[in-house]
Structure formats: C-alpha cells, structure tokens
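Milestone M4 deliverable, item 7.
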Amino acid sequence: MSLKVIEEQVVGCRLCPRLVEWREQVGRDKRKSYREWDYWARPVPGFGDPAARLLILGLAPAAHGANRTGRVFTGDRSGDWLFAALHRAGFASQPTSTHMDDGLALTDVWVTASVKCAPPDNKPLPPERDACFPFAVAELAALPELRAMVCLGKFAWDNALRLLRQAGYAVPAPAPVFGHCAQARIGGLTLIGSYHPSQQNTFTGRLTEPMLDAVFAAARQAIEAAPAPRAG
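Output delivered:
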C-alpha cells in the first residue's frame, strides 16, 4: 500500500467515537489565540521523505497543534523542539513547522504518530491505540529503506516493539527497555529511545537541546552505518 493511500485512509478514519467527538469539539471551540484558524480536526497522517531511512514515532497529535494545522508535530511547542533538532541534524530544511504550506521539507526522515487523532488529556485508550495500529504497520511496509526508528517516549517505544513483532522482526525477550538514548538492534534496524519533547519534559529540564541532539546524532550514525534491514 502506498503512502498516499495510507494518508487517505488515515484522514477518513472515524473508528473511535471518543476521539472523533473530542477532535471535532476542539475544532469548534478553538483556543482564543487561534480563533481565526479553520481547524483540521481530523486524523493526522505521517509526513516526510518517502525514501526515509529514519522513522520518528510519536504519541498523538496535540489538540491545538497538529489537530489544528493538519500536519504532525506542527504548530505546538513539541514540534518547535523536534523540528529545530532535525534542522540542526540536517534532516529538515528549516527549524520551524507552523502550518502545511510553510515550506518545510524533510530529507531522509518520516514523522508519524502512534495514534492519529488528538486524545483528551493526551491519553489515548488501549482500544484507540489498537485501532490505529494497522496504519503504523502499513507505514512501516511502505518505507522499505528504513534503517532506524526514534521513539519519542515510552508509549511510542512500546508501540514500536509491537509494530516490529507484527512485521516479522525478531524482537528479543525480554524486550528492550525504554530510556533516553537507549538503543536496540532488531533485525538490522536500530531502535532509539528519546524523552518526548513535551513541555512537561522541556520546561523542567528533563530534556535539553543537547540531549535531543544526541538522539539524532545516534540516528544519523545508525542510518549511515547500517545496510537496509530485513525482517526476522
């Protein structure tokens, strides 16, 4: 399945009643500072380079970020941190991501979320996570050049391990443990953990710019050193 077809299926999805109601309610009520915006208020597909060797996996769209702009990690503080780091690492054409037509282009990287709709309190329920899982499986299959995955947070790390098992990769038991800059080599693909660039982490100093830069330096090293991975 092509990335274009996956995008169309993601955007049209209405499988989770709670998420549909929440994303559309946020789009109607809006935040005062964005009252002039026509909110996207739909599931948010992945974005980036179809020939990517690096996949970045997050949690879910932010209510007034990607749920507003329609592009993953775009229009919120988490995205400010992520794309600035990608720019410093040479993966992004500019350090900012504000809206769909802002000129941002990604090279060698694909960015997506485990759950495609903005959830209340940024906490998707297990059935909602599972409903989105086939989209991640399809994205992985549509990105044959992948050599590494950066998982932003433990939720994404755990989902990535499930994803790799589903795709036929030999995930070791016990499973690799999440941590910042943790790495696991699975079937020729390098899994790299990172604290999520949420305000909860960046405002408190749990995640700093040098710490995030170290993650993408490791990712760059992994994709340059490794041959194309094979499942199993």
